[in-house]
Amino acid sequence: MANTVEAYWEVEGHNLHTWANTIETLSGREGLPPRRGQNEVVAYRAGEVWRPKVFGARNLTLAMWVKGSDANGVIPAAGARAQLRQNIEALKAIFARTDRELVITRRLRTLAPSLLVQTGKAELLGVLEPNFQARDLARLVVDLVMADPFWYGAQQTVNITLADGTIVNDGSYYVTKMKVRFKGPLTNPQLVNQSMDPVVSLSYVGTIGAGNWIEFDTDAFTARDQGGLSVLGSTSHSGAREWMVLRPAANAMVLNAEAGTGSVDVTFSPAYL
Prior knowledge:
The protein is mainly β. It has two domains: 7-152, Elongation Factor Tu (Ef-tu), domain 3; 156-272, Jelly Rolls (Sandwich). The protein has one helix at 80-95, and strands at residues 7-11, 14-15, 21-23, 35-36, 54-55, 58-67, 102-108, 116-124, 131-134, 137-146, 151-152, 156-161, 165-169, 178-183, 186-187, 190-193, 200-204, 207-208, 213-217, 222-225, 235-238, 249-256, 259-260, 263-268, 271-272. Strands 1, 2, 3, 6, 7, 8, 9 and 10 form an eight-stranded antiparallel β-sheet that branches. The chain has a five-stranded antiparallel β-sheet with strand order 12-24-14-19-20, with no helix packed on it. The protein has a five-stranded antiparallel β-sheet with strand order 13-22-16-17-21, with no helix packed on it. Strand 9 and strand 10 form a beta hairpin. The longest helix is centred in the N-terminal third of the chain and has 16 residues, at 80-95. It starts with 6 loop residues before the first strand and ends with a strand.
C-alpha cells in the first residue's frame, strides 16, 4: 500500500505501514530531544551562569489505526472483526516485551537516491489501549521513550594509518559512541581528531606487539587488550569530556606513535537527531 507519511517504520521487524496497521500522524516524531542540565545561579550576580547541556531521553508518539484485514488488505473467512482482534494482539505482543528495548527502524525520504535508514531503541510507556471506531477499525496511541535519544545509521569501520586519514560522519550530530582499536606494532599510540576545537585525543601508554591490539569502547568506558585484560590504567584522553568525538561532516584524524608500523580502526554509526 502507499505510505500515508514520508517515512517507513518497523518495530522488531514488523511493518507499521500495511493494510492491517499504519501510523497516521506526523506529530511527535521529528522534534529534537529535550535538553538535560541547567544554568547555575550565583548569589548577587544578575541572571544565571550558562552551563553546557546534553540531550536527555526522547519521548516518541505513534498514533496508529488498525483494520480488520491482513497486511495485503484481504479479509479472511472468519470476518473482519476476528482479523482486527488478531492484528491488535500482534501489536500488543510486539510492544509489550520487557526484557530489552525495542528495535525501531525508520526509512526517510531524502534528496539522496536511496532512503536514509536509521535505527533506534525504545520501550513502551503507555498501556496501548485501542479505541474501537467500528467493527473493523480501531485507533491506538503508542507512547514510547528512547533512553538513548539518537537515531543511528549503518555501522562502519575506518582504518587510520600513520599517514593519517579522514573519517566522514554523515549524521546530523556528534558521534561519541565508538570502538577505537589500536593495532600493533605500535608504541605509545595516540589518535587525534584535529577537526575538533579544542582537538580531542585518545592515548595508550605502552607497546602493542605485531598481531596484538588494544581496544577502547567509548560507550562502556573500557580499554582491553586482545586477551580481554583491562588496560585502563595505561590510557588517557583530552580535549573533551568524552573519550573521542566525531563531528558531523569530515574529521581530520591523526595517528601518532613513538615507534611501529601499525594502524587504528574506528568503528561507529553516524548519529542523527
